[in-house]
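Lesson 9: reading folded outputs for more than one chain in a single document. The general rule is that every protein is listed as its sequence immediately followed by its structure tokens, and records are never interleaved. Here is the first one.
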Amino acid sequence: MERFEQIYEEHREAVRAFVRRRAPESVVDDVVSETFLVCWRKLDRVPAEPRPWLYAVARKTLANQRRRLAREQSLGAADPASAVAETEPVGDTALAAGFAALSERDREVLRLIAWEGLSLAEAAVVLGCSALACRVRYHRAKTRLARRLEAIEAFRPDLKGATR
């Protein structure tokens, strides 16, 4: 019980911020609650550094919620406005456009390292891959983002230098 309370107190806000950056506010509390419920149930499996593990659980919880909502929508049971949607930070126009043009796989590895401040090894835990595979994914995602930004700046001179 004491270990769970410590994990909850130390990581609640980080998990909330992680979920907030990926889902609308209407589902944040549910996803965070479900994440810590899984933590409670699997407390004996939670590693010494729980943050990447908690992010992985939150990520899977969001994916499950998206699938459930998609199923409900296809049956006409859910209001499309209540669906879990990807949310991206508002900011630099060229960077936002370049980031949006990436695949979800590329965006997620960049989010984990740039937004969440995880190391490559920690991001690998969240993504369920090896540290080496994560390093390769991160490098490729950065390269694709740089190419997208170059293309955007080439076609939109009004955005030239907007990412710097």
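And here is the second record, again sequence then tokens.
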Amino acid sequence: MNVNATIIGQMITFIILIWFVMKYVWTPITAAMEARSKKIADGLAAGERGQHQLELAAHRAEDVLRDAREKASEMIATAEKRGGQIVEQAKEQARVEADRLIVGAKAEIQQEISRARESLRLQVAGLVVAGAEQILRREVDAKVHAKLLSSIENEI
């Protein structure tokens, strides 16, 4: 047998095998590899997008928390200010009520003083009449001398 013929036969068989593989096997394998490569690239891109979106969400969450803290601080400051105003209003109302009570008490005291003076005036008038009776040793008639007693009472 001739070595050259065997090598030529093997070369023809190898060329047919290469043609068959290129025509029917290589194209689907290449397409599958490209699809797999594209799928991996898409997955990596989606992962990067997800990571980026996660970072953005974290920044947004920080912003929302910062805004919430600021609003809470503002609300607390407003509440404290309003509380101070309420306390001041209550103090003012208490002062007004105290002043009103003081004025009422002063008016009542003045009335009591007036009543006491009137009562004392009447008592003094009675004592004056009694003293005059003692001095004159006779009874002074209050009805007869009402005008005189009234003038004495006014002088006192």
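What the second record shows: The chain has two helices and no strands.
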